């Protein structure tokens, strides 16, 4: 009697196994079908070339070779870096490691002497030609150091194949002497004839209001507002060979510019600067409206910081609605003129920073890393991994494969033989899995972050199931 019972048990177990396998196949099929319901959004439509920061510049090696994914910028300061004149040396000590990590450029704070002397962050400029070598405003060195130390920093960065961008404040000045101003009928702090360098002296005639008008697009903080319509001001800022722009580029060897507070003057000013001086440029236009950003970038012939992306990331990651990442951003509208960022010296609102960095370092535009995030606050190894992925895998146009409140999956479609990637961001508290359509058929892929240990093989139709850790990300490409 035992044999029939054993046979019956085996049949029952086998039937259960077949049912289980069949159920799993149905479940997998259902999951794939569910993913296929999401209509893929092809975000950008161009030939796939990476963001370019321009020509060879002033590199002592004579080469600034863009990575397959383009470049990564480091904002090499934060608000109120330590005073005492040692910041240029601090940054100099970092550039070799930054270069090894894949950083392609550094953005420095305003380098010239400002009204607050040794304590100024440089945004109240007095003398554009005093880099810490004249005794004025109560100090010889700037907050950041001496001219010699700045030159040494730029030289060290160039030796590591890193471009150096100057923060340029040309909307307003500060630190002038009081003088009678016939245009206002009062005394104004607009006499800069006594500046120590003796270059680009200014008086009330060079500031609004004056003979060229009462005002331009905007003033800042009550500081004297430079009049760019004045031929003398134009000449000293970007036309003459020994003026501000060309001295910074040709003598100090800066490779490009971050223009401060561009809402304060017309886009034509940056356009004229770029046409006469050259170098990479990006404008600080603090506005979340993509139309405003794009119009300015086109009129200025310049890149612009993608504040639209910044605010959408803040709402998406901290508000737990990743579908907001489908919305318009500057990098989607004009990827070759969008500089993306997670935080900077003025604003630091995003809490889910690693998710935000995984976004900007896998998507289009020119991503910027904030000094304190990299050196102090976040996991440097994880950021270095994302920089490597950006430089080596983040190529081609962008397609959004899936999005909802807590999941977002996008694909970079590859360029010039580079396979591109798939990035999966998970803002939930549990592991997630999803079927997605890749660029690759019958190909083994892996997660280049190491967050997942899966090595799945894509199907003939290029679909594959991938996973993502809680409050984390995974980034997939061909296993090679």
From TrEMBL:
Domain Glycosyl hydrolase family 13 catalytic span(s) in chain numbering: 71-387
Endpoints of the signal sequence: 1-18
Cofactor: Ca(2+)
Domain of life: Bacteria
Classification via InterPro entries: A-amylase_thermo, Alpha-amylase_C_pro, Alpha_amylase, GH, GH13_cat_dom, Glyco_hydro_b
PROSITE patterns: PROKAR_LIPOPROTEIN
Family affiliation: Belongs to the glycosyl hydrolase 13 family.
Protein name (database record): Alpha-amylase
Organism expressing this protein natively: Flavobacterium chungangensis
